[in-house]
Amino acid sequence: MPDPTALGLSRLCIPFTPFRGRLDEAAVCLVTTAGVRLRTQAAFNAEHELGHRVIPASATSADLTVDDIHYDHACVDVDRNCVFPIDRLRALASAGKIGALTERHFATAFTAQLRDFAALTAIRLAQEIAVERPQAVVITGGCRMCHRTAATLQRAIEMQGIPTVAITAEPEETEQSRVPRALCPRGSAPGHVLGPAGDAELQGRVLLDALELLTGAPRPGEVVFREYR
Length: 229
Fold this sequence. Notes:
Layout (H helix, E strand, L loop, with lengths): L3 H7 L16 E6 L3 E3 L14 E4 L7 E3 L19 H9 L5 E2 L2 E4 L6 H18 L4 E5 L3 H15 L5 E4 L3 H6 L5 E4 L14 H13 L10 E4 L3
Parallel strand pairs: 1-5, 1-6, 1-7, 7-8, 8-9, 9-10
Antiparallel strand pairs: 2-4, 3-6
Helix pairs in contact: 2-6, 3-4
């Protein structure tokens, strides 16, 4: 039976903010619903979470952990860049592919309370992200349900006038949710949407390809598939 929440989202207009300027001058923010946080922060509630955690740009993947029981952790427990590519984003900045990282990045975690997430978390968090004044936001999800909340959050950020792009391992969920831009690496799965643990070259390519969707011809609502093997 079709999911009524996804069908409801599919009737919505697609929020779309054009990317202006150049990637090599843009400040980029990372956002995830995959339960990533600093090891020193309070743990997420693995069954229902409407709060969020702030992750500073100075953090590395080694500073992070993941609170989620709804997707396979085989890769992400070894390398948090599989879902939250903070090291890969920093490498793109060092190589001059993007301008900078914003000072703060953001994460939330699993909830099945989609209405509450949309009405409370997504709006509040989108407003806090806007304070960072990013020129672009990259967003990822964890499990299938987390891809729905990622899409809701992506739409809310875009309605703040900030261009966004999702990297998705659940393309049907993402497309049904009518997000402005999304990349699906073929063969990806929840827990390693950017590629397997330790594959920095692949993760960097996926991340840059996603960002480059911002500069291409507008394709609102379309999930772009790419082969990487």
